[in-house]
Amino acid sequence: EVQLVQSGAEVKKPGESLRISCQGSGYRFFDYWISWVRQMPGKGLEWMGKVDPSDSKTNYSPSFQGHVSISVDRSISTAYLQWSSLEASDTAIYYCEVGSSYWGQGTLVTVSS
Amino acid sequence: NFMLTQPHSVSESPGKTVIISCTRNSGNIANNYIQWYQQRPGSAPTTVIYEDNQRPSGVPDRFSGSIDSSSNSAYLTISGLRTDDEADYYCQSYNLNNNVFGGGTKLTVL
C-alpha cells in the first residue's frame, strides 16, 4: 500500500525558518516525482514545485520560485519543503503528492507573531 | 503559462448526474493528461480520475472523465449522485515542467 506520511503541524514566527517532510513507502521511491501543493485557508490548491527522487532535479512554479526550496533524502525515502524566512502569508496546509494518484495527509503551517 | 477554468459551484439532486467542466485557455487540452481530485471538508484531496479517464482502484464507476478538443475542455461526470459526493473537485494538468490546478468546483448534493 502506497503511503505518504507528512510531518506534524508547525507554529512559527515571521522570519523564522522551517522544513517540513513527506516520507513515502509502499512503492519504488525513485520512480515518481514528488510534488508539493499549497492550500491557503478557504482557498484552492496551488502547485508549488516538484523533485525527482532519482537525481534530486527540481522544478518550481514561477509563483514560488525563490521563496521555497524542495529537496529529497533518498536514503530515507523522504522529500522536504523548506523556507528560510517565513511570512504570515505562508500560513496554509501543505500537501505532498506522488504520481497524480497519492497524497499525504497534509501539514498545517501557521505563521504568526 | 496556461489556466484551467472551472465553474465555481454546481448543485444537483441525489440519484442524478452532474458534469463538471474544466477549460484550458491556451494549448491543446489533449496534449497533456488531466487529473481530477475530490476534497471533502477538512480532508486531504484524493484522486478520482487520472490520465484523462482512468479510475484509481476503489473509485466507483459512477465517476468518469472525458476530453473534448473542440471545446478544449475536460469533463468529470458523476452519475447516481450520493450525498457523500458533496465536495470540492479540482482538475489539474501540466506543460513542460509546470503543473496547474483549476480553481475548484463546489458540488452540492441536495
Summarize, please:
The complex is a heterodimer of chains A (113) and B (110). Chain A has 113 residues and is mainly beta.
Low-confidence stretches of chain A: none
Gyration radius of chain B, in Å: 13 Å
Task: Give the largest interface pair and sizes.
Answer: A-B, 19 and 23 residues
Number of helices of chain A: 0
Through-space gap between termini of chain A: 40 Å
Proportion of beta-strand residues of chain B: over 45%
* Amino- and carboxy-terminal Cα gap of chain B: 37 Å
Mean pLDDT of chain B: 96
Helix content of chain B: under 10%
Largest sheet of chain B: 6 strands, mixed
Instruction: Give start-end ranges of low-pLDDT stretches of chain B.
Output: none
Notes on the structure:
The complex is a heterodimer of chains A (113) and B (110). Helices cover 0% and strands 50% of the residues of chain A. Chain A is built from no helices and eleven strands. In chain A, the strands form two sheets. In chain A, strands 2, 4, 5, 6, 9, 10 and 11 form a seven-stranded mixed beta sheet that branches. In chain A, strand 4 and strand 5 form a beta hairpin. The mean pLDDT of chain A is 96. Chain B has 110 residues and is an all-beta fold. Chain B has no helices and ten strands. Chain B has strands at residues 4-5, 9-12, 18-24, 35-39, 46-49, 63-68, 73-78, 87-95, 98-101, 105-109. In chain B, the strands form two sheets. In chain B, strands 2, 4, 5, 8, 9 and 10 form a six-stranded mixed beta sheet that branches. Chain B has a four-stranded antiparallel beta sheet with strand order 1-3-7-6, with no helix packed on it. The mean pLDDT of chain B is 96. The A-B interface holds A 35, 37, 44-47, 50, 59, 61-62, 95, 97, 100-106 and B 1, 33, 35, 37, 39, 44-47, 50-51, 56, 88, 90, 92, 97-104.
